[in-house]
Amino acid sequence: MFMRIRTSALTALTVAALAVGAGLTAPAAGAAPKTAAPKFLSASQLPPHPKSSWTAGPVTEGFPEALGFCVSTEGVLDYDYRHRVFRTDLDTSAVQLTVVTGTAAQAKALAKHYDDLIRTCADRIEKSSPDVEAEGRDYGKLPVEEGARVRGLHTETSRGATDIALLSVGRDGRTVTVVQWGQMGDFKSAPVAAFKKTTSTAVDKLR
To answer: Cβ distance 193 to 140 under 8 Å?
Structure first.
């Protein structure tokens, strides 16, 4: 599925993320202090799967590898990262990241940085992996807290393997969340309306 696209592409995109995020780099001393963990989505708040129920993993410290294809920590502060991975019994999976920054201004800049990485991800995939065709779509903003945006990403390899992902970035105060849903398929199989609801719930729970 989307999170398993070739390692060579992942390596190239990590380098690209480093370059894009250079403007957010600062000494480690400026990192946000530890704080109470924001609340995470529960399994029941993910887009319903027609043939399998969701299982939620534990909330874990650090940045999730499953999210590192389009979004990474390269070039940004050593923030307080936590994540939760969700799975079904079939080919669908999801992950949520929360990032607690030092100020609302830092959170605003970080949310824009992550959204920019997602927005440009399709182009970076095609440049790094000539055998992969990628298309991104913008599903618009959501009026929740300080705002959120939902995007889609479809990839197809020269061998015919297709994967679809929905990704969103939202912010409340100095906390940012990124949510990713993915499975085999194309844009027609993406539960956009349900994912928008999931994103709104995720941002609401940051309070």
So the answer is: no
What beta strand segments (E) does the chain contain? 55-56, 60-61, 80-87, 93-100, 132-142, 148-157, 162-172, 175-184
pLDDT digits (tens, 9 = 90+) for 7-41: 333 333 333 343 334 344 443 334 444 556 789 99
Q: What is the pLDDT of residue 82?
A: 95
Tokens matching residue 145: 């807290």
Calpha distance 153→137 (Å, rounded) = 6
Residue 114: count of CB within 10 angstroms of its CB: 28
HSE of 81 in the Cβ direction (CA atoms, 13 Å)? 19
Residue 98: DSSP 8-state:
E
Q: Which residue stretches of the chain are H helix? A: 7-20, 104-119, 121-128, 192-204
The CA–CA distances, whole Å, from 80 to 24, 111, 165, 168 equal 15, 14, 25, 19
Q: What is the pLDDT of residue 29?
A: 37
Q: How far apart are CA 165 and CA 10, in angstroms?
A: 15
CA-closest candidate to residue 173, choices 98, 78, 118: 98
Low-confidence stretches of the chain (pLDDT < 50) are 1-33
